[in-house]
Amino acid sequence: MGHRIAVAGASGYAGGELLRLLAAHPDLDVVAVSAHANAGQRVGDVHPHLRSLADRVFVETTPEALADVDLLFLALPHGASAGLAAQLPPGVKVVDLGSDHRLTDPAAYARYYDGDFAPAWTYGLPELPGQRAAIAAAERVANTGCHAAASILAIAPLLAAGVASPDDVVVTSTSGTSGAGRSPAVRLLGSEVMGDLTAYKVGAHRHAPEIKQATGVRTLTFVPVLAPMPRGILATVALRPVSATGAADVRAVLADAYAGEPFVRVLPEGRQPRTSATTGSNSVQLQAAVDEDSGRILVTSALDNLGKGAAGQAVQLANLMLHLDETAGLPVDGIAP
Questions:
Q1: Which residues of 89-112 are buried (b: 16+ CB within 10 A; e: fewer)?
Q2: Which residues of the chain fall below pLDDT 50?
Q3: How far apart are CA 112 and CA 205, in angstroms?
Q4: How many other C-beta atoms are found inside a 10 Å radius of the C-beta of residue 315?
Q5: At what angle do helices 247-257 and 146-160 cross, to 10 degrees?
Q6: Are the CB atoms for 97 and 143 separated by under 8 Å?
Q7: How far apart are CA 239 and CA 90, in angstroms?
Q8: Cβ partners under 8 Å of residue 206, min gap 6
Q9: Which segments constitute the Semialdehyde dehydrogenase NAD-binding domain (predicted)?
Q10: Is the CA virtual torsion 213, 99, 123, 236 positive or negative?
Q11: Residue 288: predicted pLDDT
C-alpha cells in the first residue's frame, strides 16, 4: 500500500491530469476524488481517457470526505482553497494548485486578486535555491502558476548571477486554452479560438506579482497570449544585461543553475524550445540568445501548462513532501506527433 491521496476539484483539466499521473504512480494511491457540479458522476463519464479510474465516483468537496489521507491536492477555483484547508485535521499534507497561498504581500494580493488575503505557504518551485529542502519539510505548499513557472525558471538564475538587471523585464507568454480552465465560456469555443491569437488581462495579470516575488524582478511587463492549442506554454523573456555578454555566457549561467535538475533542460545552441516537445511531460526546455540590435538577453521557455505548470509540478512537490523519489510517476518525455 502506498500513501493515501485525495484530489479536490478532480473534474477540471488540472484535476484530470493529476488523476492520470497518480494512476501510474508507484507509491501513491488515490482514495478519494471530489467535484462540485460533477459530484455523483463517474470519473470515466467526465474524463473518458482515464480508463483505470473510470468507475470511481466524484464525491462532494467537504473536509469530511477528504480528511482521511496522507496528502490532499486542491485543484479548486481561486478563493476556494483557503477555507477548505483550514478545516482539515493536523497531519494532512496539502498541495494547493490554486492561487490562494502564493503571495506573501497583502498589498500585491489586493491589487491583483479578489477576496481576502490568505497567508502564504511554502512556494512550490523546487528548482529555486533552497526551495527543495523547504518543500520537503513543509506541511502546506503552494503550487506555482503556469505562466509563472515558465517565466521564473528563465529569469531567476540570470538575476542571481548578476548578469541581468531586475528592472525593465518584459515577458510575453503564450498559453493553450486549457490554462483557462474547463468552465464553459464563449471566448474559448473552438470557432472563437481556432485561427486566432489574442492577448488577455494585459497590464494586470495575476502571475506578475508571483514572478516578481520569486525572482527579485523590480519592474515587469507581462503580456499573456491565448493560442489555438489545447495545452502548452511558450514564454519569451527579454532582460537588460548588466554588462556586455554573449549568448554562450547566458546559456552557461542557465546550464550551471540547472545542472542535475531532472526536469529542466537547456537546449544546445541553435535549437529553440517547442511546446509540442513537452506535451504530457513534466519537462521544461530553455534557450538563450542576445538580440543583435538592442543587446537585450532573450530567454525562451517551453513547458506543458498542465504538466510542469500544474499537475506535474504538484506531483513533484508531493514526492518531496512524502520523502519519495522526486521523479516518481513523472514522465520527462513528451508525446509526438
A1: eeebbbbbbbbbbbbeeeebbeeb
A2: none
A3: 7
A4: 27
A5: 110
A6: yes
A7: 44
A8: 99, 112, 113, 145
A9: 4-136
A10: negative
A11: 97
User: Looking at this protein, which amino acid is placed at residue 156?
Assistant: A
Give 116-122's long-range contacts (Cβ < 8 A, gap of 24+): 116/82, 118/81, 118/82, 121/96
Q: Which one of 146, 155, 253, 267 is the catalytic residue?
A: 146
Whole-number pLDDT of residue 204: 83
Phi, psi of 275 (to 5 degrees): -60, -35
> Regarding beta strands 284-290 and 198-199, do their DSSP bridges make them parallel or antiparallel, or are they unpaired?
unpaired
Whose CA is closest to 141, among 120, 122, 117? 122
Give the pLDDT score at 177: 86
pLDDT of residue 192: 79
Would you state the cell numbers that stand for residue 209, as one nine-digit string?
506579482
Phi, psi of 245 (to 5 degrees): -145, 155
What is residue 154's predicted lDDT score, i.e. its pLDDT?
Answer: 98
pLDDT of residue 76: 94
Give residue 324's pLDDT: 98
What is the reported pLDDT for 21? 98
156 CB-side CA count, 13 A: 22
Q: Would you state the pLDDT for residue 121?
A: 98
Question: Which runs of consecutive H residues, i.e. helices, occur in 70-218?
Answer: 81-86, 106-112, 131-136, 146-160, 190-193, 207-215
Cα–Cα dist 155/253, whole Å: 11
What span, in angstroms and rounded, lies between the C-alpha atoms of 141 and 210? 15
Structural domains of the chain, with CATH: 3-143+308-321 (3.40.50.720), 146-305 (3.30.360.10)
The HSE-up count of residue 36 (CA atoms within 13 Å, CB side) is 10
Residue 228 · residue 189 · CB < 8 Å: no
Tell me if residue 121 is catalytic: no
Q: What is the pLDDT of residue 88?
A: 94
Residue 306 is predicted with a pLDDT of 97
